[in-house]
Amino acid sequence: MNIKIPQLKYNNPMGNNKINEIIDLLDLNESQKIIDFGGGNGQILIEILNKTNASGVLVEIDKKLVEFCENNSEELIKKERLIIENKDVNLYLKEIPLLSIDCAVCIGSSGIFGGYLETIKKIKPYLKDDGVLFIGELYWKNKPDIEYLQLTGLEESHFMYHYQNIEEVEKLDMKYLYSNIASEDDWNSFEGNHYLINSFSLNEDIREKKKIWRKAQIKYGLKTMGFGLYLFSKNDSSLNKY
Known about the structure:
With about 240 residues, the protein is an alpha/beta fold. It has a seven-stranded mixed sheet, sandwiched between helices. It has ten helices and seven strands. α7 runs antiparallel to α10 and α9 runs antiparallel to α10 (about 205-225). It has helices at about 15-25, 45-50, 65-70, 75-80, 90-95, 115-125, 145-150, 160-170, 185-200, 205-225; strands spanning about 35, 55-60, 80-85, 100-105, 125-140, 175-180, 225-235. The longest helix has 21 residues, at about 205-225.
């Protein structure tokens, strides 16, 4: 018999319902703009645009991911509600004015700015005074075992704990609004699908690396690594008070 190759809608270990829970909190109108930094195939941005009247920009350097987004968002592009910038995010920031973004998105892509807190420091000046940041980041659930770090090539300093992902951002004068975290089931599904996808790869090096990562995930990962979605604002004026 044959095994189907799974398709991942979002390239992160968060359940679709949890992503949509935060998206549903975004109250955006047709005059407002979303910038998704390192948004990959654009599926989260497309989901936001489909649920709001806002327009958006996907900034992604990977040409294959950009092409995927183009093929899955023809109507949004035609209506000029989606613009795709196939370039480095740091270059893109140099091309836009400060205080020009209503909603910035960066899900699991903080490495493109040099890390989680660096991402927030770089994006914050471009947010409008009532702007919001929707960001996704890894965190340590427990102190990582030495073997886990050796298998994955990670360092303990690469990530913080969940509470620090909130408190350290508040120290940057950002207001915490909401968060969601991936469950063990979310992680198991994400890693299992990734492993299965790479099992079909013609690149033997990729297959071997994924076997090592999968070993680390099964033995340590579920109790060690977490992933959170966080919603922050620059100030209280972003809250729609009823």
